[in-house]
Amino acid sequence: MKKRKKNNPKKETLSIIVRYLILIIAAFPNLWIFYKIFTPLTIYPVAWILSTFFHISILSGNIIFINHLIPIQLIGACIAGSAYYLLFILNLATPKINLKKRATTILISFLIFLIINIFRIFILTLVAVSGSSLFDITHRLFWYALSTLFVIAIWFWEVKIFRIKEIPFYSDIKNIYSNIK
Questions:
Q1: Which residues form the domain of 145?
Q2: Which of 7, 39, 52, 97 shows the smallest number of beta carbons within 10 Å?
Q3: At what angle do helices 99-129 and 81-92 cross, to 10 degrees?
C-alpha cells in the first residue's frame, strides 16, 4: 500500500504564488515574450517550406514575398502568441507537477503548436496564392475554431501522456480551500 504524502500548506501556497506570478509577468506587456520567441521560429520555417515551391524573399522581418508579387504579412495573430500563452497558463495553473515534467510538457506543447501553426500558415498561403475565393472562409475557420481546438487537443493529449492528475485552477482553489479549513 502506498503511503499518502501529507500536504505542506506553506509549500503549496508558495508554489501557487510563484506559478501565478510567473503567469502575470509573462503576460506583460502584451505577451511580448511569446511574440519575440515565436515570430522568427514561425516566419523562417514557413518561408523555407514555401521556398520549395516559389521564389521567396522576406521583407521587414514579417512580410514574405512570393514570386516578387504576392505579399504575405504574418502579423501577431498569425504567430498566435495568445495560444502559446494559453498552453503556458494550462501548464502553470496545474499544481503538483515537478519542475522537469513541467518544463518538458511546456516545451513539447509549444513545439507541437509551432509545427501545427507553420503548417496552418503554409496551407493558408497556398490557398491565397491560388487566388481561391475560399481563402477568407478557410482563414476564419482556422482562426476562430481550429486554433482553440488545437490548443485544447494538445493539452488533453499531454494530460494523458504525462498522466497529469490535477485540474488547472480548480486543484489550486481546492487546495487553498482545504488549507483554510
A1: 9-180
A2: 52
A3: 160
What is the residue type of 55? H
Q: What is the mean pLDDT of the chain?
A: 90
Q: Does residue 116 belong to any structural domain of this protein?
A: yes
Checking if the pLDDT of 27 tops 80, the result is: yes
Q: Does residue 1 sit within a domain?
A: no
Please list, residue by residue across 34-49, b when 16 or more beta carbons sit within 10 angstroms of its beta carbon and e when fewer do: bbeebbeebbebbbee
- Residues 65, 142: Cα–Cα separation, whole Å: 22
Query: How many domains, the chain?
Result: 1
Q: Which residues contact 7 (CB under 8 A, 6 or more apart)?
A: 175, 178, 179
Place of cell 511569446: 34
* Of the candidates 75, 74, 78, 101, the residue with the CA atom closest to the CA atom of residue 164: 101
**Which tens digits make up the pLDDT trace of 139-160?**
888 877 888 899 999 999 999 9
Residue 2 belongs to some domain of the structure: no
Q: Give the CA distances from residue 21 to residues 28, 71, 73, 128, in Å, rounded to whole numbers and listed in that order.
A: 11, 40, 34, 41
**Residue 23 within any structural domain of the chain:** yes
CA–CA separation, 143 and 76 (whole Å): 12
Q: What does the alpha-carbon distance between residue 66 and residue 50 come to, in Å, rounded to a whole number? A: 8
Instruction: Give the Cα separation of 108 and 16 in Å (integer).
Output: 23
